[in-house]
Specification:
Helix 7 runs antiparallel to helix 8. The protein is α+β, with helices and mostly antiparallel strands and 679 residues long. The strands form four sheets. The chain has a seven-stranded antiparallel sheet with strand order 18-19-20-21-24-22-23. It has a six-stranded mixed sheet with strand order 1-10-9-3-7-6, with no helix packed on it. It has a six-stranded antiparallel sheet with strand order 2-12-11-8-4-5. Helices cover 25% and strands 24% of the residues.
Length: 679
């Protein structure tokens, strides 16, 4: 990998022959596990300015219509997470000379509070090409990490590392983005105002891709009850509305419940694993080809260009004496060039076969294909591949190996039809049929469903205190736990339409295998599996603890004490907010300098909220911890009494019955409907 210094530049073609499509990643580490930033991209003409405000891409305008830019969102890493951006450089308009990649923080936070700031760039095959680390960020609230620019008909990358004290608004204005001159608009861009103030300060551009409210089963957090004056009417929009599923289902015309609606993709006739694999592959690939938004969403992260997509199943390809038949093939055409990926599918918990995947890698390399995509119920972890393959370093053409979980496919379909919308009703209907198919018990596409063969021995070893540190079975359970947590993030995130990521509290540069080994030793010592989830819009980190000794699950959240007011007022307001929460909710007051403060169940505190306050008047209350406890399933699978089902149910119950009722935190940034660039 090419390490770059500030101000240096390099031609992409000097690093790879496959640089027409690249993935650029921005990453940082927060010592507290809670710091974050938002990425943005600006396309600039020869004059160093955007052609129009539609050349400004951020979390509310993440995809270019021509496919040249796509913000792919955050991906968990061993030390936190990284933001990835896909660039199809062959699709960038000819009058664009430079692409600026930046990130910004909010509420006065600076990049100096974060560690290990860096940008990396990989080619279309997934091979890392360059890295640029920023070690002098200081207190700036926005920073340009780097830029892609044209010289002599080829693309180059320049390591910039330039900071902006004025934040996102100052950076955007410098490059010609037209920010409205309403009072407080710049502050709203940086997320410094309340939801109500930001709503009157900034309006959404007509070129924005409007997202709609979620009709899902999980409600969004309740807004604060204290209104700050009347809201101004939003500016009329001219952009075509996206189509999402209706909030209220239409009344059925069936005579009784025994009548089953006709489905596009029937599942009742599936009898064998082979039938399930063939049907699932055909259903998914056909919808990807027919719904461009969905197909592009799944393939952009794999380096595929934006273009005309066609998909195929049961394709015969020569391989020695016996032809091979991959489950599917994806081909994307852009400017006369083809991008091709072979697809290998598994359903019903079946494992991928290394020899089979190796054969497809060899075939792809010989035929000049770009990628092999594996698809199964399992969830891939960094540093722990699902299959090990050998890559012939002598081959000039390199093939990338990627993995998709069926849970990820379901998540992306949910995000489109429930929250972001698609181009027309037919596309929405196709995605709805796909979701119905994936969720049917007979499809075999249910995501991670088995804690593995080590689960029962480890649980028994913890119970009778015979499990020793260094036992490889404990490491297997830790990896399965991490897969389960990531799947829960996808499931809940798809219902909420919000980013949910696991919090990784690890030292900078920690190897993921070493980190899991430490967690396995901790499991042997105290018998607990623990995880933390960062949910966008929640007032704190949602913590999960599975105690294998007591067979109890604990879900909890710590919320900070208000900056103003009196403790008794805080306690009364909190109890009032939790009027619809379960009576067995545990509430604990966090007191500075003390291991634990007063605590009690919501049922006991409802008539007398003052019981939650310390008896010593000068005690400094720092916050409150809310917790729910439930029994833990013992089985390794996803049956009604299984561990996986119990954890998933506990997280969903805690969010829907507790977190959703809490006050939102002071917003980090303006919400998607409050941040815009004017026409």
């Amino acid at each position: 990998m090419h390490d770059m210094a500030k101000g240096s530049n390099v031609a992409l073609t000097a690093l790879s022959e496959n640089a027409g499509s690249v993935i650029l990643s921005l990453s940082w580490v927060s010592p507290t596990g809670e710091g974050d930033a938002d990425v943005s991209v600006l396309l600039l003409g020869a004059n160093g300015k955007v052609r129009s405000d539609s050349d400004f891409y951020f979390y509310n305008n993440p995809v270019a219509a021509d496919g040249s830019v796509q913000l792919l969102g955050k991906t968990p890493t061993q030390s936190g997470d990284e933001d990835r951006i896909g660039f199809d450089l062959t699709a960038v308009p000819s009058d664009i000379d430079r692409i600026v990649v930046a990130a910004s923080r909010y509420e006065g936070a600076g990049f100096g509070e974060l560690e290990d700031l860096k940008v990396t760039l990989a080619d279309g095959g997934g091979e890392s090409l360059l890295r640029f680390a920023i070690d002098d960020a200081g207190t700036v609230s926005a920073i340009i990490f780097g830029e892609l620019y044209r010289r002599g008909g080829e693309w180059k990358f320049r390591a910039v590392g330039q900071g902006y004290d004025a934040g996102l608004a100052g950076l955007a204005t410098d490059f010609g983005v037209d920010i409205e001159d309403d009072a407080g608009a710049e502050e709203a861009l940086n997320g410094a105002l309340s939801n109500e103030q930001a709503d009157t300060a900034v309006q959404v551009s007509a070129v924005e891709r409007e997202s709609q409210a979620s009709p899902g089963s999980v409600p969004s957090p309740r807004p604060p009850c204290d209104e700050v004056g009347p809201k101004k009417a939003a500016r009329p929009r001219t952009a075509k509305k996206k189509v999402t599923v209706p909030k209220v289902a239409r009344k059925s015309l069936a005579e009784n419940e025994s009548w089953k609606q006709a489905r596009l993709f029937p599942v009742s006739v599936l009898k064998s694993d082979r039938d399930r694999e063939m049907r699932a592959t055909s259903v998914l690939l056909s919808v990807m080809a027919q719904v461009p938004e969905f197909g592009r969403r799944l393939t952009a992260a794999f380096g595929a260009p934006a273009g005309r997509m066609e998909t195929f199943t049961e394709v015969s390809l020569p391989h020695g004496d016996t032809p091979r038949r991959p489950d599917g093939v994806i081909r994307v055409e852009r400017a006369g060039k083809l991008w091709t990926a072979l697809v290998e599918t598994k359903t019903n918990g079946n494992d991928l076969k290394p020899d089979q995947v190796q054969a497809y890698m060899d075939i792809a390399a010989r035929r000049g294909y770009e990628a092999v995509i594996t698809l199964s119920n399992d969830v891939a972890l960094e540093g722990s591949p699902l299959v090990d393959v050998k890559i012939d370093g002598r081959r000039k053409h390199k093939v990338a190996l990627w993995h998709l979980s069926w849970a990820e496919v379901t998540h992306q379909a949910q995000m489109l039809i429930r929250h972001e919308g698609v181009g027309d009703k037919a596309h929405a209907w196709l995605l709805q049929e796909l979701l119905y198919y994936l969720r049917h018990e007979n499809s075999g596409c249910h995501g991670f469903q088995n804690m593995g063969s080590a689960w029962v021995p480890v649980r028994n070893g913890i119970d009778d205190e015979t499990l020793c540190q260094g036992d490889s079975r404990a490491l297997d359970v830790v990896e399965s736990w991490e897969r389960l947590v990531r799947q829960i993030c996808l499931s809940l995130g798809g219902e909420l339409g919000q980013k949910i990521l696991p919090v990784q509290r690890a030292k900078r540069g920690t190897d993921p295998k070493a980190r899991r080994s430490l967690l396995a030793d901790q499991l042997c010592r105290d018998g607990r599996l623990q995880a933390e989830l960062r949910i966008e819009g929640a007032p704190g980190i949602l913590a999960i603890s599975a105690d294998l000794r007591t067979t109890k699950l604990r879900t909890s959240i710590e919320i900070p004490a208000p900056e103003q007011g009196y403790p008794l007022t805080w306690a009364k307001r909190l109890i009032r907010r939790l009027a619809e929460a379960p009576a067995d909710l545990h509430i604990e007051t966090l007191v500075e300098g003390e291991a634990g403060g007063p605590r009690g169940t919501l049922e006991r505190l409802r008539p007398e909220p003052a019981d939650i306050l310390p008896k010593i008047n000068d005690s400094q209350i720092t916050g409150f911890r809310l917790s729910l406890f439930k029994g833990m399933g013992s089985g390794r699978g996803n049956a009604e009494s299984g561990f996986i089902r119990s954890v998933d149910d506990a997280v969903h119950r805690f969010y829907t019955s507790v977190v959703v009722h809490l006050d939102r935190p002071t917003p980090r940034r303006a919400s998607p409907k409050e941040l815009s660039v004017s026409e």
